[in-house]
Design a protein that fits this description.
The protein has 139 residues and is mainly alpha-helical. Helices cover 84% and strands 0% of the residues. Helix 1 packs antiparallel against helix 2, helix 1 packs across helix 4 and helix 3 runs antiparallel to helix 4. The chain is elongated. The chain binds protoporphyrin IX containing FE. The site of protoporphyrin IX containing FE has 25 residues, from helix 1, helix 2, helix 3 and helix 4.
Length: 139
């Protein structure tokens, strides 16, 4: 199985974890319900959040391998993917430190979480989304 195919499969799983983490907290804060529902959504968010972090590790490792292989020969789309991925790692680190270590800053967690979700979706669309589009067009 090629590195690209493994990365695309991991990208689908990452997008699934991002959607689950995103929608669970949007439902918890955006359409509040009873305490039991709020705790259920928070647990779902925690699980999806750690699955997300676990999937980012091999994706970064594969990306680093491609980067070493291609060096400055990256396409504009590849370069954009690299920069957006670096921003995603920075936002993920900020989000984790905010909710785990500096809880007085918890009010920033929703904004950081929404940014994390948007970055994940954009990176997915310009990579896996692009491959699907090009393959479907038979190119
Ligand atoms: C891809 C998107 C996201 C990922 C990967 C993610 C990941 C995480 C992780 C790993 C935690 C720590 C869980 C724990 O140890 O308790 C967490 C907590 C939290 N997240 Fe997210 N998150 C995302 C999106 C969001 C969104 C969209 C919001 C709000 C609208 C949000 C709000 C929070 C809050 C408030 C906490 C702290 C929960 C608590 O301890 O009470 N997150 N998130």
């Amino acid at each position: 199985m090629s590195g690209y195919l493994i990365k695309t499969l991991l990208a689908f799983l990452l997008l699934g974890a991002a959607f689950t983490a995103f929608l669970s907290m949007m439902a918890r804060f955006g359409r509040p319900g009873d305490e039991a529902r709020s705790n259920r959504l928070r647990r779902l968010h925690k699980t999806a959040g750690y699955v997300y972090i676990a999937l980012v590790v091999p994706l970064v490792a594969f990306g680093a391998g491609f980067l070493v292989e291609m060096g400055d020969g990256l396409s504009p789309r590849g370069a954009l993917h690299f920069v957006l991925a670096a921003i995603l790692i920075a936002v993920l680190l900020l989000k984790f430190l905010t909710v785990k270590t500096y809880r007085q800053m918890l009010r920033y967690a929703p904004g950081l979480g929404m940014t994390l979700f948007s970055l994940t979706l954009v990176i997915f669309l310009i990579t896996a989304g692009y491959f699907i589009l090009v393959s479907a067009a038979g190119k």
